[in-house]
Write a structure and sequence with these properties.
Two copies of one chain form a homodimer. Chain A is of the alpha+beta class. Chain A contains four helices and five strands; from the N terminus they run ααααβββββ. Chain A binds a DNA duplex through helix 2 and helix 4.
DNA sequence: TTGATATCAAGAATTATTCTAAATAAAGAT
DNA sequence: ATCTTTATTTAGAATAATTCTTGATATCAA
C-alpha cells in the first residue's frame, strides 16, 4: 500500500488501485503533497492549509489533517514532532533528525554521518522491535549563534 | 539554581535559598518529585496528579503542572515526549532515550552503549549549538514481541 | 451510467496544557 | 513571635491542536 500510493502520486495516475481498502489519489491529497514538496520548510498543518487554500479555495483544514495523516501512514511524508509544538510535516524520506533553532524557529534536517547508524549508540533491549525513531534537537542555529563559532557540546538533557 | 534546588530537595531542607528569584521547596513540589521517584513508570501529568492527590487531597492539577514545569526547568526531572501523546515525566537524569511499546504502552528508558555519544552519528551543522536532544522510539517490547526473538531492524522512519 | 464506497467539508467536540486572579504560604526582617 | 513581601497554590476559564461527526460529493469498477 505504501509504495502503491507513492507510485501513483509520482506517476500522476488517477487511482491508487483497489487493493487495501482502495486508497484514492484525490486532488486534495495531491495538492497537500505538492505543497510539502514545493516549500520544504516543515510547515505545520495550519500552514499547509493556508498554502493549499491559496490553490484550492474549497479545501478545509480537516481535509488537510486527513491528507497529512494519509500521506504519513502511506510513508510519503514524515510527521515531525519537537517537544509539544504543533506537528510539522516533511517530505524528506531519508533517515534524518530535526533541529529547531529556538531563536529563529527554523527547522533543519540533520542527516546521518556516512556509514553511521542511529541504533548503534543505544543499548536496545534484547528481543524488542523498534519500528519508529524520532530524534529532535533544540538549540541555536549557526546564524543565530552569531559570536560563538564553536559547535558547542550539549547539556545533560536527553 | 538547578543544583541549588536539587541540593535542597535531596537534603530535605526548607528553603531553596534567595538566589535567582528564590525558588521555594514547597510541600507540593516535594510531593510531586516524590511521586516521580516512587514509581518510575513515566506517568503523565494527570497520573501524577492522581497519585499526588491520594497523599495531599488539596493539590490541584494546575499545581502539578506548575511543579512539573519547575522541576523540569531546574533539571531534576525530564519531560518525555513521544509523538503527540501527553507528556510524561521521568526523574532519570542519565542520558537516555525513550522507547514506547505500542502494544502494552509501557515506556522504557534506553541507555547509551558504553563510550558512545549520541551526537557522534549525526552530521551536525557547523557553528550551531545544540542544547537539548530528545530521542523517542516506538515498537514492540520484548514481552509483546513474543514469537520473534530477533531484535529487528528498524523501518525507514526517522 | 450507475452503484458502492471512499473522501471531503464544516463545524462541533475533545484533550492537554496554559492562563488568570484571588487566596495562601514561605522566608527574611522587625 | 509577628509583620511584610513575594512566591506559590488553587479553581476555573481560556486556548490551541487535533479529532470526530454527519451529510454532501467525488471516484472507481462494472
Amino acid at each position: 500500500m505504501v509504495s502503491k500510493l507513492r507510485q501513483d502520486i509520482t506517476a500522476k495516475s488517477k487511482s491508487a488501485g483497489g487493493a487495501l481498502g482502495g486508497l484514492r489519489m484525490t486532488r486534495q491529497r495531491k495538492l497537500v503533497y505538492d505543497v510539502l514538496l514545493d516549500e520544504r520548510d516543515h510547515p505545520t498543518a495550519t500552514e499547509v492549509f493556508i498554502r493549499s487554500k491559496a490553490r484550492m479555495s474549497s479545501i478545509s483544514l480537516a481535509t488537510v489533517y486527513n491528507c497529512l495523516e494519509t500521506l504519513s501512514a502511506a510513508g510519503l511524508v514524515k510527521q515531525v514532532n519537537v517537544g509539544r509544538d504543533a506537528s510539522r510535516y516533511c517530505p524528506n524520506l531519508a533517515e534524518h533528525a530535526h533541529f529547531v533553532c529556538v531563536k529563529c524557529e527554523k527547522v533543519y534536517d540533520i542527516g546521518l554521518k556516512c556509514n553511521e547508524e542511529v541504533e548503534s549508540v543505544w543499548a536496545l533491549p534484547e528481543g524488542s522491535r523498534i519500528d519508529h525513531l524520532e530524534v529532535a534537537m533544540k538549540g541555536l542555529c549557526a546564524e543565530c549563534n552569531g559570536g560563538d563559532k564553536r559547535s558547542g557540546k550539549m547539556e545533560e538533557q536527553v
